[in-house]
Design a protein that fits this description.
6 helices, binds the ligand O=C(O)c1ccccc1N[C@@H]1O[C@H](COP(=O)(O)O)[C@@H](O)[C@H]1O, TIM Barrel, aromatic amino acid biosynthesis, alpha/beta, 10 strands, two-stranded antiparallel ribbon, eight-stranded parallel beta barrel
């Protein structure tokens, strides 16, 4: 139940790279919705373990597969490149996989366990299944995907009327993750930013975190300073918890 996420001690976190969730493991940090070489470079320079590219046309973060294929080259050997799709059909996934060569697929729609299994088999890539969470009962959705999805991503349910299934900058009540089975490998997402990441980490001790709009100056516009501030806040929080 892992994508073999790597320790990011080499270029990030160093002595603070201690996961409270899985002792001796590090925290994964995925910066999502990247569209420019500058934003990719900032994520990598700060030690991102994953960089994400959005293939949902209604998103302000949407990129063409060829563009993502160019951008992801900077991540080779440094971070995993993740293709984020929403109920994509095989033809669209074929195009993305061929042009971008992702390390991982993030399925952020209403994909069934059978669809996740089929996607895994078709591409031989690890799959992260996103689940929309509002309350503890929503975590029941994990069960049918266990042994199928390599990883989960817990994001807040989108607000009524939103056209985006993710990237809404909305957080859910992180306290409901307190009783989660420790064997569930996941990224915490939804409304994270430099101000709240400390509280999020201390409440949930997640294997990883995922952020998009919290490091943007406007929808779809990544801000290098905000990316740096987010990593600074992660480092500070982890140094505090290790002390
Ligand atoms: O970001 C998007 O536009 C998006 C579109 C379609 C599916 C998923 C999307 N984003 C995912 O949502 C998380 C959380 O975003 P935020 O931090 O709350 O803005 C993001 O990291 C993506 O994995």
């Amino acid at each position: 139940m892992t994508d073999g996420h790597r320790a990011i001690t080499g270029n990030f976190l160093d002595s603070s790279a201690i996961s409270c969730h899985f002792p001796a493991m590090s925290l994964d940090v995925k910066i999502c919705g990247l569209k420019t070489p500058e934003a990719v470079a900032a994520a990598l320079a700060n030690g991102a373990s994953h960089v994400g590219f959005i293939f949902f046309p209604k998103s302000p973060r949407y990129v063409l597969a060829g563009t993502a294929g160019e951008l992801r080259k900077a991540a080779v050997g440094k971070a995993k490149a993740v293709a984020v799709t929403v109920d994509a059909d095989d033809a669209f996934l074929d195009e993305i996989v061929a042009a971008m060569q992702p390390d991982m697929l993030q399925l952020h729609g209403d994909e069934s366990p059978e669809r996740v299994a089929a996607v895994k088999a078709r591409y031989g890539l690890p799959v992260m299944k996103a689940l929309s969470i509002r309350d503890a009962a929503d975590l029941d959705a994990i069960q049918p995907f266990r042994g199928i999805a390599d990883r989960f991503l817990f994001d807040a349910k989108p607000p009524v009327g939103s056209e985006l299934p993710g990237g809404n900058g909305i957080q859910f009540d992180w306290r409901i993750l307190a009783g989660l089975d420790r064997n569930v490998d996941y990224l915490l997402a939804g409304g994270l930013n430099a101000e709240n990441i400390g509280e999020a980490l201390s409440l949930t001790n997640p294997p990883g975190v995922d952020i998009s709009s919290g490091v943007e100056s406007a929808p779809g516009v990544k801000d290098v300073g905000l990316i740096e501030s987010f990593f600074d806040a992660v480092r500070s929080a982890r140094a505090r918890s290790a002390a």
